[in-house]
Q: What sequence folds into this?
């Protein structure tokens, strides 16, 4: 028996666990398992040549990105970026944001983003099939080539303009040749590339959610978008802050929600939801659920039909009593 022969049973167990980790996005377990496989590869040289093991290893690292060491993350973007597109619902922006918040201090984030940007600009992995034309040169459709084409279209490697990016994705001759899946790859790449250009010291690029409270405004800044805190919520936020600070809460601090406030809140919810649901049926359902504006007209029609039925049955008959009970159940 060969010393380094691969154990098929072990591989099946690893594959089953890997599928579960990916399905539930278990990034901590992904990190542990990736280290286990990496250690196994060091001890068994045959594993290094097994593509399936390598595929699992680097996909586990993509799942574990928020907890992966800095150099490991750089390596993924430099050599294994294309693997990320094989996940069904992988949120690259959220994973990378979590990595920055958890592991990279604010002062170092711009340098780290520049490092990721550089390895993407040098990445030679093909992310589409057909060759593309960049500045009148026919190039292999690598990550590097696509970013070069995009930078030329934008006019600058540091320029950010969402509308112009959408314009590129819609009208670029290179993009027009792609199938739907390839277009989605390029969209994800370019959106992430533009995020890397944003300084963590800017309003748009600051990764954490930031509470703002001064005489002029109170609210939360998240992803460059400021959400104002409504007046009725200010008192409750003050109470929450006291709880966080370990202060004692007195009864006079606690305010009750008035019926008027409750109704205003419900109407705000309806206004917001109705923008997303356009049909009369959907709007009616929203009003019934939130504002308790139920339509009972159908019950009136049903009562009228039952009243007509009464005349068909004799007094004190079982049928007449059954209809009378049904009318009573519908309410007077």
A:
């Amino acid at each position: 028996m060969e010393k380094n022969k691969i154990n098929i049973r072990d591989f099946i167990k690893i594959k089953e666990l890997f599928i579960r980790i990916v399905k539930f996005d278990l990034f901590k377990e992904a990190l542990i398992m990736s280290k286990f496989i990496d250690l196994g590869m060091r001890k068994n040289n045959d594993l290094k040549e097994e593509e399936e093991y390598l595929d699992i290893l680097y996909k586990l690292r993509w799942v574990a990105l928020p907890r992966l060491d800095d150099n490991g993350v750089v390596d993924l973007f430099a050599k294994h970026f294309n693997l990320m597109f094989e996940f069904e619902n992988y949120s690259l922006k959220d994973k990378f944001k979590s990595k920055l918040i958890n592991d990279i201090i604010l002062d170092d984030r711009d340098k780290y983003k520049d490092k990721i940007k550089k390895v993407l600009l040098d990445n030679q992995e093909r992310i589409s099939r057909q060759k593309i034309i960049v500045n009148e040169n026919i190039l292999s459709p690598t990550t590097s080539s696509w970013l070069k084409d995009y930078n030329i279209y934008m006019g600058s490697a540091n320029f950010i303009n969402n509308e112009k990016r959408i314009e590129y994705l819609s009208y670029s001759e290179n993009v027009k040749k792609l199938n739907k899946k390839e277009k989605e790859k390029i969209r994800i790449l370019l959106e992430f590339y533009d995020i890397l250009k944003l300084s963590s010291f800017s309003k748009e690029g600051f990764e954490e959610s930031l509470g703002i409270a001064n005489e002029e405004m109170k609210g939360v800044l998240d992803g460059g978008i400021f959400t104002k805190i409504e007046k009725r919520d200010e008192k409750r936020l003050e109470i929450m802050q006291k709880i966080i600070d370990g202060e004692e809460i007195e009864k006079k601090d606690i305010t009750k929600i008035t019926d008027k406030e409750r109704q205003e809140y419900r109407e705000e919810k309806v206004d917001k939801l109705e923008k997303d649901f356009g049909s009369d049926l959907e709007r009616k359902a929203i009003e019934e659920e939130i504002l308790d504006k139920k339509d009972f007209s159908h019950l009136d029609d049903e009562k009228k039909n039952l009243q007509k039925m009464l005349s068909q049955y004799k007094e004190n008959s079982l049928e007449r009593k059954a209809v009378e009970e049904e009318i009573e159940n519908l309410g007077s």
Observations:
- Residues 69-205 form one domain.
- The chain has five domains: 1-65, 69-205, 209-255, 258-289, 297-329.
